[in-house]
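re: ur question from yesterday

yeah so i grabbed the chain u mentioned. its 333 aa long if i counted rite. heres the sequnce exactly as i have it in my notes:
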Amino acid sequence: MSMKKLRWGILGSASIAKRAVIPGIQGSAINEVAAIASRDLQKSRETAKQFGIADAYGSYEELLADDSIDAVYIPLPNHLHMEWTLKAAEAGKHILCEKPLALTAEEAQQMADACQRAGVHLSEAFMYRWHPRYDEIASIIASGEIGEVRSITSSFTFNNAGDSGNVRYRKAWGGGSLYDVGCYPISAARLLLGQEPAAATAHAMFSPQHDDVDMMLSGLLEFEGGKSLIFDCGMWAAFRNPLEVLGTEGIIQVPNAYVTNSPGSANFFVHRGGEKREVQIADINAYTAQADAMHAAITGNVPLKFTPADSVNNMKVLEACLRSANERSRISI
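ran it thru and got these structure tokens back, copy pasting raw so excuse formatting
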């Protein structure tokens, strides 16, 4: 007996949608991309043709009015996340919204409350969390193999500074490296440590050439028991995305913590007692796994592992880091 497919609508033709999320959903046996909308009808038609999507709309409102659509994916610029999440919830659509969920924790809470009132699911599109290797990393930590965790270090940087018209470089739109990629190390540390940080200290390079957004940011998060996250993020630096968990007896090293787009790139290493072992992980599409988790929640009443409350807490940390960088001070969370 075949399972009913979840019918998705895409609000916008952003690069991340075309490069990763649409192919990820289409790679699922239980999800399908049924419609796409753009404020430019020609653009939505072109994207629909490119990916074999049945329906193309010239406005987001038209897609939300389509009763055949079960869920929507929102890859719009950060400052539009709340507006279109609220409208999608009102239309009765389940929502997968790009990270960061909002511009502030207050906005994220409004979105969570609206979705709860409407009886729809809301999930933040941190695709990396749905890759099974994070369950394996958590299992190794819990086993005690590396001893007691002392700290986590992580980075996520890339160089796109030459694209001056990019939405990432619009301060009022929620631009900057912290909101674009710094949110990943912060989310990962909270996930693996299983607790919320008490304080944040950050230093940033704000670029007048890019509307004064943070083009590079380095930070320290303080967790209970003396644990910490030391991280950096940037949009004007060479590409890298490692994560390291330091324990009293060993180390977990993840060379590609967030981007796994080549064979073997999901593998990671455990160091203990002078020995190093490679943990081999199946190559799966995290975007497909993300869509499948939404299907399970919507059609099978399986609770989502990551709730809107988690997104609100992540936004609190992002806000604290940005405030710290602006004020040159330690911020309690």
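noticed a couple things. The chain has two domains: 6-127, 130-287+315-332. also Residues 130-287+315-332 form a domain with the Dihydrodipicolinate Reductase; domain 2 fold (CATH 3.30.360.10).
anyway ttyl
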